[in-house]
Amino acid sequence: MAERPSARFWDRISEKYAGQPVADEAAYQEKLRITREYLRPEMEVLEIGCGTGSTAIAHAPYVRHIRAVDFSANMVEIARGKARAGNIANVSFEQAAVDTLDVEDGSVDAVLALSVLHLLDDRQAAIGKAYRWLRPGGIFVSSTACLSDSMAFLRFILPIVRFFGRAPMVKFFSSAELRQDIENAGFAIEREWMPGPGKALFMVARKPVATAQL
After folding, report:
1. Is residue 23 within 8 Å of 66, Cβ to Cβ?
2. Which residues, 6 or more positions from 164, have their beta carbon under 8 angstroms from its beta carbon?
3. Does pTM surpass 0.70?
């Protein structure tokens, strides 16, 4: 599957990635702040595509437990090291791909999918799984590069760069398509924010209580 070669790419660059500063620190902090408006101390949270664990660790004090997964083994090892260094006991990191992830339906209160949906071979399937995994009233938080909106030209460049091992698999879609995908899965979008032109679209969507088990 397409995710596996990308895992090798992220394994290779994991140390460099971990050492880079956040590209837009102000936007990142605002996304953390907005997300925390929805978090509660009793929550069970699942983060898919957790990378080196910074976001899971940042949210850890606000919830009961976070299960954070990534398909890159090296990224997960770096994340575990961060958690040990910070004495973070309520985050568990594991290597897993979204398409094979074992999660009981209706077992989590929040699913975070940050900077990952455009890297998946089938984002609609992942969004649908997130819906099933959530309890009624649970939230789905995503931050996604919708490259068709402002960088469609990369569609012709990235395959060449990827051929030489310098880029992961990336899917192109618009913000309108992403909204439709999320709504088609059954979610009600409650909030969305884009820090500026060409920036990732940040969204908070909720699994409705009344229709969650239909």
Report:
1. no
2. none
3. yes
Cross-strand bridge partners of residue 91? 66
What is the signed CA dihedral for 39, 44, 45, 46, rounded to 10 degrees? -170
Q: Look up residue 191 and give its two tokens.
A: 């909030």
Structure tokens at 67: 């299960």
User: How far is CA 208 from its chain centroid?
Assistant: 21
Which stretches within the chain are classed as H helix? 3-19, 25-36, 54-59, 73-85, 123-133, 147-150, 154-163, 175-184
Closest listed residue to residue 207, CA positions, set 122, 63, 105, 98: 105
pLDDT the model gives residue 164: 43
In the beta sheet, which residues pair with residue 168?
A: none
Among the four given CATH numbers 3.40.50.150, 3.90.830.10, 3.65.10.20, 3.40.50.300, the one describing domain 3-206: 3.40.50.150
Write out pLDDT tens, residues 120-154: 999 999 999 999 999 999 999 999 999 888 765 56
Pairing status of strand 188-193 against strand 134-144: unpaired
Are 7 and 126 contacting, i.e. CB atoms less than 8 angstroms apart? no
Per-residue pLDDT of 199-210, as tens digits, reads 999 999 999 997
Q: Is the Cα dihedral 168, 7, 74, 204 positive or negative?
A: positive
